[in-house]
TrEMBL record:
Gene3D superfamilies attached to this UniProt entry: Cupredoxins - blue copper proteins (2.60.40.420)
Signal peptide interval: 1-25
Start and end residues of each Plastocyanin-like domain: 48-159, 167-318, 416-530
Organism: Sediminibacterium sp. KACHI17
Name of the protein in question: Copper oxidase
Length: 727
């Protein structure tokens, strides 16, 4: 009988896929989503990766309780939250409670503050609700946030808001696996620019009389101008391209709790029914200010109040900053009233502006304009609705925000920190002071200190910097009434100052860019309270910290492989933030055409990473009877050669790659070339010449992200045509 009972238990566990972790088990029978027990609210969240996306197909998604976005969590200030997260997946996950003030071990950053939620296990979060406002939650594990793991949090004040309200959770969606997106960004593919129609190629430059602008851009070693990195297949409002709420009538006021839960998309917000009254930002109340539009940075929240003016259905239009797509919320019933559509960006005007700000050494120059707090949007030159219109459009900026009560910090010692936001678009490396998180030490702070942080953005991208577990004051000219925030969007060339009181007793608190792909490449720091006691959720802190650091140390594989009628040539690369492994080859079809292979291990130096010294091995063979010499008079030895070599690569103006090396026999070779000259939107030209008197030139026409038709001439292998695989 005991044997039968044991078999039954084992079969039950096996069939339900249950494993134990921290004394919790994933329940085969789901509990009610929410249960109130006095002032304690218990939520059950079930995480799964068997999800159907908006197209009706299974996808690379992660969902909570079967929906994207996850269900909204509702609390009242003074409640106690108990949130049981049941991980039904066969991989780790985590949840960070964005903007909430809570004990450090409940913050939800895996391996830093909180234990990861292991596969097929349950983790219980418990913390008091000490604030009110609009917040959200999301996975802090790898790229799960991009895959759909995010949801809204609404916390009512003790005296509840009685006006009508709607959650407006904005997000971005791509059908491609997010890990492929991340890998592609690190190899500077312009496939997403092709999808957007934003390559700024030479034919387009000539057609728009911007040829000189394009040449200067590449002379300064810059890529094409863009305001975002990824092309998205859809943008969502509450998980839908169009969300409808027909119950509102003329004269109704509606509080819209707008959350930017995207991974990398900024949204322009405009309402068809007139002005919007901004009443809160990042959960903290502000003195109401009326605007025609606002831009909401990645991970920010805004509460705005709108009025339904007349009969009809009025659009709240949320448009991606790059204007490729939009998503809508419709309020009211009847004839649709559309918000103004944002026209296409004038990319070459932006390129011209950036040319003037970029120095030849890769640093940026604000030209004495002393920009801050979004008050001078350098991208305005690209906005036709501003440049080509006499309409007086009131756009929100941070200097317009004012707290309703004094926000001055308590008395205490003041410590000032300065950070330069730095980056490298060509290799997609994002840093503070040219160091990733793994390359920098934790910043030790003491309870009771007042920390002032001066942030200067010396990159071409916006960066929404988020501080975990604390509100900070944004010093915006409002004196004692500076607004409180948890996220600060810092535009290119801006210098902004924030300050916060080190009010917590212990713990490590993350400070990072909230563009997901920037954070994963290492853009952030860790503030750590001195004398922090051991965290029971992190039993081996040294090993755990290695896992945190591993994110920005990962290697990515890239390749360009040509298969043509005259043979094959190509390059495979394995690279991370600072190191690169390269393998290049040319393979002919006959012994006379021969083959050659070069392997390099290089270290990328400097903020721009234009310089890479390397050590390598060169191996080649060709059946040849004539003695060949390079331009220095040295014997070329193409017949058979296997040598160790030392050299360096350097990125020259016009994005040309210069490579010089000497091998162990004393032979010197210099080479110059480029692979990706954008002739048209999809046509790319390549060329190469070296002092061994070898040269190539060719073209490839891009059919898809990975496949091109190509043709080229090689001085050793002759003409060929075929396909090129780009990975």
């Amino acid at each position: 009988m005991r044997l039968l009972l044991l078999v039954y238990i084992l079969l039950s566990v096996s069939l339900n896929g249950i494993t134990q972790h921290n004394a919790h088990a994933v329940s085969a029978t789901r509990q009610p989503f929410m249960v109130r027990q006095g002032n304690k609210i218990v939520y059950h969240l079930y995480v799964t990766d068997t999800v159907v996306n908006y197209t009706g197909k299974k996808s690379n998604a992660v969902a909570i309780n079967g929906s994207i976005p996850a269900p909204t969590l509702y609390f009242t200030e003074g409640d106690t939250a108990e949130i049981q997260v049941h991980n039904l997946m066969h991989m780790e996950t985590s949840i960070h409670w964005h903007g909430l003030i809570l004990p450090n071990e409940q913050d939800g950053v895996p391996y830093l503050t909180t234990a990861p939620i292991h596969k097929l296990s349950t983790h219980v979060f418990r913390f008091p609700i000490v604030q009110h406002g609009t917040y959200w939650y999301h996975s802090h594990t790898m790229l799960q946030e991009q895959s759909g793991m995010y949801g809204a949090i609404v916390i009512q004040p003790k005296k509840k808001i009685t006006e009508a309200e709607e959650v407006v959770l904005l997000s971005d969606w791509i059908n491609e696996n997010p890990h492929q997106v991340e890998r592609s960004l690190h190899f500077a593919t312009d496939w997403y620019a092709i999808k957007k129609g934003a390559t700024q190629n030479y034919i387009q430059a000539i057609r728009e009389k911007k040829f000189g602008t394009k040449v200067i851009n590449e002379w300064k070693r810059m890529m094409a101008m863009d305001v975002s990195d990824v092309y998205y297949d859809a943008l969502f409002t509450n998980g839908k391209v169009d969300d409808m709420h027909a119950r509102y009538k003329p004269g109704d006021k509606v509080r819209l709790r707008i959350i930017n839960g995207s991974s990398s998309t900024y949204f322009w917000i405009r309402f068809a029914g007139g002005k919007m009254s901004v009443v809160a930002n990042d959960g903290a109340e502000v003195v109401p200010v009326e605007v025609d539009r606002l831009i909401i940075g990645v991970s920010e929240t805004y509460d705005v109040v709108v009025t339904i003016p007349d009969a009809g259905s009025y659009e709240l239009l949320s448009t991606a900053e790059d204007r490729t797509r939009s998503t809508s919320l419709w309020l009211g019933e009847g004839e649709k009233k559309y918000a103004p559509v944002l026209p296409r960006l004038k990319y070459f005007e932006g390129m011209k502006m950036m040319n003037g700000m970029m120095n030849m050494d890769g640093t940026m120059n604000d030209m004495g304009m002393k920009m801050s707090l979004q008050q001078m949007d350098m991208n305005t030159v690209m906005y036709p609705e501003i440049v080509d219109s006499n309409e007086n459009i009131v756009t929100l900026n941070y200097a317009m925000l004012r707290a309703p009560a004094k926000t001055t910090l308590p008395d205490g010692p003041v410590r000032e920190l300065k950070f330069e936001l730095t980056g490298n678009m060509n290799r997609y490396v994002w840093t503070l002071d040219n160091k990733t998180i793994s390359e920098s030490d934790k910043i030790l702070i003491k309870q009771g200190e007042n920390i002032r942080i001066i942030l200067t953005n010396n990159s071409m991208m916006r960066h929404p910097m988020h501080l975990h577990g604390h509100f900070f004051r944004t010093l915006n000219g409002q004196g004692e009434y500076a607004p409180l925030k948890t996220v600060l969007d810092i535009m290119p060339m801006e210098t902004d100052t924030i300050e916060f009181h080190a009010s917590e007793k212990y713990g490590d608190w993350y400070f990072h860019c909230h563009i997901l792909y920037h954070m994963m490449s290492g853009m952030g720091r860790i503030f750590s309270y001195e004398n922090t006691p051991a965290n029971p959720q992190i039993p081996d802190p040294i090993k755990a910290l290695r896992k945190v650091y591993r994110d920005d140390r990962r290697f990515y594989l890239g390749a360009q492989i040509g298969v043509e009628s005259n043979g094959s040539d190509g390059e495979i690369m394995l690279a991370n933030t600072r190191w690169m492994f390269q393998n290049e080859w040319r393979l002919g079809l006959t012994p006379e055409k021969g083959y050659e292979n070069e392997f390099h291990i290089g270290r990328l130096i400097g903020r721009n990473q234009w310089f890479m010294p390397y050590i390598g091995f060169d191996w080649r063979y060709r059946k040849h009877t004539e003695m060949e010499k390079n331009i220095f008079g040295q014997v070329n030895t193409k017949d058979q050669r296997g040598v160790i070599c030392f050299g360096f690569q350097y990125t020259l103006p016009m994005l040309l790659r210069f490579d010089t090396r000497v091998d162990m026999k004393g032979n010197v070779r210099m080479q110059i070339g480029r692979e990706d000259i954008p002739v048209s939107s999809r046509l790319r030209m390549n060329l190469m010449w070296n002092t061994d008197k070898e040269y190539t030139t060719g073209f490839r026409y891009i059919l898809s992200k990975y496949v091109s038709v190509s043709s080229h001439y090689d001085s050793d292998m002759g003409w060929g045509a075929g396909i090129t695989i780009t990975y």
